[in-house]
């Protein structure tokens, strides 16, 4: 039997196995999950680190999925280690390269020289590989973990229902607003430290729910979305509230049109519905040959 009628795609959410893959991702996100304590002494540098990751991702044309994975690895590694300033920039870059090796084509993996303006010029490839290895060993080489961006790609295909389009001429306008708003909420979710403690699938579902509410779509949580995500609307209330507050703060203080982001959409009020691993200090001599030593 000829197989040319089958749709070929590299996007798992467009395959006949998408439901099975989604179920595995939800299982894996719970099995992998670490306790996040927001206890890194360098946590105040997190916005700068995320901005650096986004900037490099834009230069190397990386995907949203890669950025989210890099930030996830960085967050949990930072939470369990005391890092010097020079090293923390190197660690963030190492997390991005590890994420790129999983999610991107080999040609998009960034090189060490792209970071030479923010780290010591004395850092060699050998030193950098040692940092990568430290990160891999901490995660026990299990760094292919689900993120918010993984689930968003799947949930987006179920965003609209037939009742959303009263006039066909407005369909394209609505879909364009949807795409821009999803990007904005998705990237704003990276800024919130409180959202790290939630399972990525729940944050992704909350982004979809908040977007539908902001666009004024009724119902804001459809039976199809409930079936696909496995979440009831009441399960997402707290996460949506945190997401909405963070978007308002983010729009007030930080421009949203940097990196791979599109222009930020207008924001309406957040929805209101119903009434470890022990942190250690790593000592790896000669990782960075400068006044500030590594780790």
TrEMBL record:
Instruction: Name the Gene3D superfamilies on file.
Output: Cyclin-like
Q: Which UniProt keywords apply?
A: Cell cycle, Cell division, Cyclin
Q: Name one Pfam family in it.
A: Cyclin_C
Q: Outline the extent of the Cyclin-like domain.
A: 51-137, 165-245
Lineage, highest ranks first: Eukaryota, Metazoa, Ecdysozoa, Arthropoda, Hexapoda
Show the SUPFAM superfamilies listed in the entry.
Cyclin-like
Domain Cyclin C-terminal as annotated: residue spans: 146-272
Q: Which CDD domains match?
A: CYCLIN_CCNJ-like_rpt2
Give GO terms for biological process. Answer: cell division; mitotic cell cycle phase transition; regulation of cell cycle
Protein name listed in UniProt:
Cyclin-J-like
């Amino acid at each position: 039997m000829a197989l040319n009628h089958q749709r070929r795609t590299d996007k798992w959410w467009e395959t006949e196995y998408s439901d099975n893959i989604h179920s595995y991702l939800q299982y894996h996100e719970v099995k992998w999950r670490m306790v996040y304590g927001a206890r890194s002494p360098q946590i105040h540098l997190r916005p700068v680190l995320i901005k650096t990751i986004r900037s490099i991702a834009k230069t190397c044309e990386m995907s949203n999925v890669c950025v989210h994975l890099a930030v996830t690895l960085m967050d949990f590694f930072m939470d369990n280690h005391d890092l010097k300033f020079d090293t923390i920039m190197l660690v963030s870059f190492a997390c991005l390269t590890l994420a790129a090796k999983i999610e991107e084509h080999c040609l998009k993996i960034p090189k060490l020289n792209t970071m030479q303006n923010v780290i010591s010029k004395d850092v060699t490839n050998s030193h950098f590989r040692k940092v990568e290895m430290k990160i891999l060993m901490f995660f026990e080489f299990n760094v292919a973990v689900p993120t918010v961006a993984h689930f968003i790609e799947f949930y987006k295909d179920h965003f609209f229902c037939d009742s959303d389009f009263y006039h066909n001429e407005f369909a394209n306008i609505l879909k364009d607003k949807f795409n821009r708003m999803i990007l904005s909420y998705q990237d704003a979710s990276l800024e919130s430290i409180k959202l790290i403690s939630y399972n990525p699938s729940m944050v992704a579902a909350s982004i979809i729910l908040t977007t539908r509410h902001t666009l004024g779509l009724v119902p804001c949580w459809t039976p199809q979305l409930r079936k696909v995500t496995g979440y009831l609307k009441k399960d997402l209330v707290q996460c949506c509230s945190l997401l909405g507050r963070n978007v308002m703060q983010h729009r007030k203080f930080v421009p949203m049109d940097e990196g791979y982001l599109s222009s930020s959409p207008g924001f309406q009020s957040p929805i209101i519905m119903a009434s470890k691993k022990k942190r250690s200090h790593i000592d790896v001599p000669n990782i960075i040959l400068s006044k500030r030593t590594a780790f």
